[in-house]
Fold these 2 entries.
Entry 1:
Amino acid sequence: MLPERGTIVCSLAGRDCGSFMVVLGQKDGKVLVADGKERPVDRPKQKNIKHLSLTNATVTEEQMLTNRSIRHALNDLQSLHCQGEI
């Protein structure tokens, strides 16, 4: 089962291992993700679902419009994760 658009996921494999990303869509059984920096909205990365860990967090459609708003949403989640609240 592929995650829905707006779900925040954590990468489990690859050079982006351990980083949080937002699901932008699906293509050919893979998930398209972006982090707003290394992978901007206009150039999302295709990841295998096996290489992602789903979180309960989501972002709104408005937060997915720009790379800057994605970065802010992911930074907020990262700070909560580091504090042990997630």
Note: The mean pLDDT is 87.
Entry 2:
Amino acid sequence: MIQLLTKFKVNAMEKQDTRPWWNFGYVWFIISGPLIVVIASFITLYLAISRPDPVIDDYYRKGIEINKTLDAQRDAMTPAMQARNHAATGIKPTKP
């Protein structure tokens, strides 16, 4: 029995794979995930540097114009809102 176990151990040691690490497919599979992320980050960095965002000229003035447009739309709806409120409550609106 002891001879059989020692023979098994010797055979197991003789069958060990002595190939270098780069010959195993699972090693490349594990390395490929982080490698793809690193390559994608360099591509993103290149795109960010080569194509800067455009600067909006005079954004403050454009914001004021948008607010004026919204105020004009609200003011245009004032008579309709007063009529709706009068119809719903029966109370005439007071004139300012």
Note: DSSP finds four helices and no strands in the chain.
